[in-house]
Amino acid sequence: MTEQELIEGCIKNSRIAQRELFNLYFNEMMGLCMLYCKNNDDSRWVVNQGFMDVFQHIEGFKGNSSLKTWIKRLMINRAINFYRQQQTLREKQVLMDYSQLSDIGSQSLDSDAFMKMAADDIIAMVRSLPFNESSVFTLYEMEGYSHREIAEILGIVESTSRWYLSNAKKSLQKKIEHLKMTYYDQAK
User: Fold this and answer.
1) Which fold has domain 98-187?
2) Residue of 124, 119, 116, 156 whose CA lies nearest to 140
């Protein structure tokens, strides 16, 4: 197929044209994305997502540059966005340490119970809260937003933000107490 036939086929969602375009540029785009990604799996993910972008936006290709140049631009944008997302995740994965978690409630809990907790358990506890409580708790306790800022982000009033935070802390305290009791029951 010619380049124009590939473009027209992809616009019509022809799987044959999409596969041919993918096969034609995959290796080169993989090499390009490996410059931005830390490993082959990430590169492969970026390339696959990049080709999804290509297929979704190919109608927007105006022909001002070659198709290859246009695809490269999409891949680079996808790779940079992937890198930024990974950076943001790394920066935002500030998990509360065990001492912070024990201060959630009014009672101090035995640190042995927390030593048995994996970070995934802590995240699961927060995620198990209703959306608004989880969001407010995460934004306030982990991200450091004020109640005024949270209210603006979530479209609620400040007092409601405080109420959600209080409920979240109470719920987490109950979950921690339950975990503590479970831990001590297993230790017996």
Assistant:
1) Arc Repressor Mutant, subunit A (1.10.10)
2) 156
